[in-house]
Amino acid sequence: MLYPTDDKQQVYGKRYFGRGGVKFALLKLLEEEPMHGYQMMKALKEQSGGLYVPSPGSIYPTLQMLEKRGFISVRIEDSGKKIYRITEHGRSSLLLLPDKTSRIAAVDGRYSPEAEAFRIEKIRLKLGLSSQSFGLLRLVTQAEQEASASKERANRLQKLLFEQQQQINKFLDGHEQESFSAEENQEAYT
Fold first, then answer.
1. Are 117 and 185 part of one and the same domain?
2. Side-chain half-sphere exposure of 10, counting CA atoms within 13 A
3. For residues 9 and 55, is the Cβ–Cβ distance under 8 A?
C-alpha cells in the first residue's frame, strides 16, 4: 500500500511545500486576483504539475488563519461562495519575507528543490524501497557518474561495490558476521 490513508496530500503535501509554503502560495495566488477556495486548490495543482493535490482540509483552515491574521479578506457572494482577496498587510508581508513559492515552479526545465524532493519520494514509493535503500541507490548512481571521470576512481568504486555486494549476499545467505564494526567496515574500503 503506497498511502497510509486515502488522502494523498496528507502524505505528500507537506513535503512538497515545506513549512509555511502553502500560506505563501495562497498569498501569491491572491496577489494576482481574488479567488474562491476551489479555484486556489485547482491553481496550486496546475502550478505543481499535479505533484501537489491540495485538500479542502489543508486549504480552508489555512485561509481562515490568513483571514484571522489580516493577510486576506473574505466576501460572500450572493451564491454563498466566499471570494478571498489579499489585503495590504498580506501584500507587504510578501515583500518582507523570502519568496518561498518561487522555488516551487520549474526553472529552465529543472524541478525546484521542493518539487524535486516530492518527485524523488514518489519514485521511491513506486519502487517500494525504504528510504535507506533508495538513498543508497541514488548514492551509487551519483558515485558512478562522478567516478566515470577517472579510471582509477572507477576501479576503486567497482571494488567497493563488489565488496558491499558480497556482504549483502552473505546477509541473504544467513552467513553475515554478527558484529561487523565500523572499523572493519572502514578497513574494507581502504
1. no
2. 8
3. yes
> How far is the C-alpha of 99 from the C-alpha of 173, rounded, in Å?
53
CB-based burial of residue 24 (10 Å sphere; 0-12 exposed, 13-18 middle, 19+ buried)?
buried
Average pLDDT over residues 42-57: 82
Cell 523570502 belongs to residue = 98
Residue 175 pLDDT: 76
| Interval 120-147: pLDDT, tens | 777 777 777 788 887 888 888 888 888 8
Looking at residue 64, its pLDDT comes to: 96
Secondary structure (3-state) at 75: strand
Whole domain around residue 83: which residue ranges? 8-123
Cβ contact 67:74 at 8 Å: yes
- Distance of CA 135 to CAs 80, 121, 125, 129, 132, Å? 49, 10, 12, 9, 5
Q: Across all residues in the chain, what is the average pLDDT?
A: 76
- Residues 106, 83 share a domain: yes
- Whether residues 15 and 104 share a domain: the answer is yes
